[in-house]
């Protein structure tokens, strides 16, 4: 219920976003008609269409994205006709004559024509195809959840609730606007001029959408104006999970549920398939992770340490690999990653999120501690509290009858990419490069799934980033089409990581990193030398910057000497 409230409030806030501006003329075009027969059906059609299209897009259907592009052009033609009919009554009669014969009532005809509920709904469908709300924190949260949970009634309901929130605020604007326009007509006798002005605004809205302003310039303006409000709503309605406090010595651990089935795993690595029955009598630690997640990587030394330290004392560690990106579903990629990361305990590939759903999990990383009777007795989300987690493991092993357990705690002296994050609370947020969840992008409109020449601006504000060169931006990554392309980011943090991968041919891709326009020197990361040089050889997380002193604001740039690189997401430490 709280997530539904959050989705609705996020939709309501879209009225404050400049991204809604191109849609407003289509809404106000029927402000002179009865609301229940015109405004309401139009807004309902818009909300349903957006929910359906967004659901399909979030589920990763490339065909849906391309089909919607064609639908957008058809919708723009229809709404351009609407704008022209508002400019002239005579032009309206001439334009709508063939549409009447075909039964097309999406366009508004002469002023004397009767109202049509279906015509208003059809206009809403066209508007829904064109509506591209800015991907602020709330919409990003909903789209991420849709991608993880797959096709479901809940997925569509959340997106429909978001759209309903937008329709509510637009409906209020329409009711107020209708009264204003009616007053203007009565007081000034300017009905025809108001009609023509609406026609001009409709045509301007179509032009703005055709030029990509709704997903380019207006997106950047809106993120600055509503992102903070949305994040506060997320924190208020759905606060970050508080870690479960470790029980006091001698107190029993609570029972949180039973061990869900592991049968949904698509494949097992380092082990034959395991079942909950075969694990009865063992203490089990289930670690949800994915190999390009920096937070997961930083917890791995502890998970590996616990597995090695207690494997002869009744502990079984299972890594449930739940992929975030499509390349993480490739078993060969995961097999290479676990070898490189030194993971030798059983790993279940959860490509369909079946085990994830069984635990009702929502986080990477997430640790669930299960006793010898198959009961979940403790959990921990995210990084930290490693000693408390090891105390839980020891308590469950003692309860299972284990004796003479090794003492001390697993070492916290870790280096390289596995080192703990800095304590800088102002470090830059995780930033996705693909358009489905991109935020804070600057440098023009994003041409979705089409090659486009991008030009990075001469200056960036904190946490802003841009592309430079010829790129094709997809839903979860951006691919470089021509050598010499670059990505720039004004970041804050000790570490900068970027998830990268080569093209489908797998050829290595050379890159060069600069910080504030100079080679990184002592501030280079593990995957970059002091001169800033490195090579993309596989699909994984690359540590490009580790500042030797502090975590202050810096301008990062990575230039690629070869085409084909795929960039997914920035993370910071």
Automatic annotation (TrEMBL):
Residues 247-398 form the Thioredoxin domain. Pfam families: DsbD_TM, Redoxin, Thioredoxin_10. Keywords: Cell membrane, Cytochrome c-type biogenesis, Membrane, Transmembrane, Transmembrane helix. One of its GO terms (biological process) is cytochrome complex assembly. It is found in: Cell membrane. It is a multi-pass membrane protein. The chain crosses the membrane at residues 6-28, 40-61, 73-96, 117-139, 159-181, 193-213. The keyword Coiled coil does not apply. Gene3D superfamilies: Galactose-binding domain-like, Glutaredoxin. One of its GO terms (cellular component) is plasma membrane. It comes from the Bacteria. GO terms for molecular function: oxidoreductase activity. The keyword Transmembrane applies. This is Cytochrome c biogenesis protein DipZ.
